[in-house]
Amino acid sequence: MAPIGVDEWVARSGEKREQAGRLRRLGERLNSRVGWWPRLAALAIVGLVYGQLGLNLNFQTVGFNSVLYAILALGLNIAVGWAGLLDLGYIAFFGFGAYGYALFSSHAFGNLVALQGGIHLSIVAIIPIVLVGAGIVGVLIGLVALRLQGDYLAIVTLFVGQAFVEIVNNVDPTVFGGNNGLYGLDPWHGLGGRIGTLNGYYYAALVILIMLMAGLHLLDNSRTGRAWRALRDDPLAAEVMTVPVNRLKVMAFSFGAIVAALAGIVFAAQQRSVFPTNFQSSVLILIYACLVLGGVGGIAGAVLGGVTVTVVEAMLSSPTDSSYLFYGLILLAMVARVRPWRHLALMLGAIVGFGLALRAIVGAISHAAIAGPPGSVGWIGTVMRHFVIVPTGSITYGNILFAALVVALIAIVQLRGIWRQVAIVPTVYAAACCWESRLIVDTGVTAQIVLGAILVVMMAARPHGLLGTRRVEVV
Amino acid sequence: MQIFIQTLVTGLVTGCLYALIALGYSMVYGVLKLLNFAHGDLYMVGAFVGYYMIQWFGGSSALVIPAWLVIIFMLTLAAVAVGGLGVAIERFAYRPLRDAPRIAPLITALGISFILEDSVLLLFGGYVRSYNSQNFISYSTALHVDGVNIGAVQIMIVALSVVMMAGLFLLVNRTLFGKSMRAVASDREAAEMLGIDVNHTIALTFFIGSAMAGVAGVMSGLANEPISNYIGFLAGLKAFTAAVVGGIGSIPGAMIGGLAIGLFESFSSSYVSSQYSDLIVFAILIVTMLTRPQGVFGQPPLQKV
């Protein structure tokens, strides 16, 4: 029973925290001892060291994208996390920044076909121009948004984002390049220098990220930050307390727009091109995934989310790493959910035994049914070769298995007690077979499915994100 | 005049399809206050169910049983399968999040949409299909109005949509289930206290909404719209526009909104510019939202203090 005056939900989450293990308590003590600045400095050092490692291009891309998505998530956090405005048109500002940079540093105003003429400004001039432009557009959309509340705001902003893609796609292809986008952009140049390498842009983005985090931390603890939170928790009460609700909403939109536009400038310059498809709603979903995974409302959460999503995406697109991730996630889910430990050991043993037995039986009936090579490479592939059932020519088999797997997962949610634990054994084995025979073959498609599944499971397990705290919503 | 009638018919047909999808959006929003972004993908799944039914019965040009029987099978199976899928999604993904912050189910819906689109891509491949319905539905049995041919499929789509919408209207307004659905929509907790089985009602609402999206998918296939795993997104977006313009949560609003969006789209693409027809639809939405945020038929939300 919750004490009087405390919401049941808060009480329950408090209880859970008290039950936390020794490790978590240690983490919390560390958390309260170390201040904000040392942590930011530590992050900066980690970032710099990562850039100095001289890693190959893949790792550099992951590093750059992590920082870029962290910046984007931070910007989104201003409107969504702090001011509580569900902004689904955020991607338009990212696109605005990218196209803004592209227009002033390419042949857009000259001849796109012959790649001649156009405006080529230095970065010192472009950044202020584009950011001021983004700020003004943010204010305009914010003013429009004042009329709308809650879900209606989400709806209108969603269509603002869609309209942006339609506009750059259709309006005047001789300037915006239509479907083909704008390419051959200048690299960042100005003050006598230029940035030409991926690592260079990584450092530039890192500097922006660190400065942004410091600025946002100060903003969060300022009068404005507190007013935003008041607005988010209860707009009506905030208004009654003479918080200038309208001005704060417009400010939140505008600040978010500026941050997104800045990310767009870095993105366009690094890619040296912009296409309408870069700003589709699937990218918006990724940014939301960063923010929500990390925990809405926190600076560290947004950065953690940006890094996590980028790393997961990069891992999923490589056959070796995606196997690590897949089996790792299954193992992690079992370790986290199955208690006590001996049940877990029993279950893992049962899975291995079940798999080997079933494989032996199937192999005795027909050798061709187990003759196919597993999709994984490396040591996982070697292990799986002796464990999973993969027939040769396994597309149809894999498809059927995939459908069966979905049904089995739904069934497991419905089952209770011992039956659930029994049902998990063949399901995990089927998942391994399905992964080896079908899922890993189409990495691109599988990446999307796994990403979707991670989002769904994550939301069910921790709706407040990895670093977020539970918050009671006043509806 | 010919162009006008042709445009009108096209607009009515697409409008009916949008209306059927929009109804599901609206009903789900009504009971759960959830923008179910995965709803458009259910429509896509329905189209695929129909396509594989045709293949099952021997392919579009060599059906082994009469065409009308195939169409009935297709519609029934799509309704049942997609309806079941909708119920499963609700049970599996949305129910654990009933009391979570508003953003969580939204993200889940987007995740489900990823999963559906890419699972279909994985299972069936990415190429664009067509029902080729001209092979088994005779196009000569059609109405001729002022020199314009109105195909049997188009008549069937409009007629069936009208029947379904009328049925839904009666279901919501005249039956006990409809009453409990409206009760859950207006206040879930109060409905629960009055002994209404909320979970059951929500599941049934999902079933009906999803089934209608599935039927809409089959009908769009019969009208020889291209079928691929990505059709759900844009159709869902348009239907969503329809639901919002009509007033989200309102059932007659979704019907009228769907027809209006379909007509606007076809008239703007044949009289203004086909390039900008999507943009025009979005502009209508934004203007409607700004002048009448609750939509044409919606009730303004009550603010509880």
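qc> DSSP finds eleven helices and two strands in chain B.
qc> done
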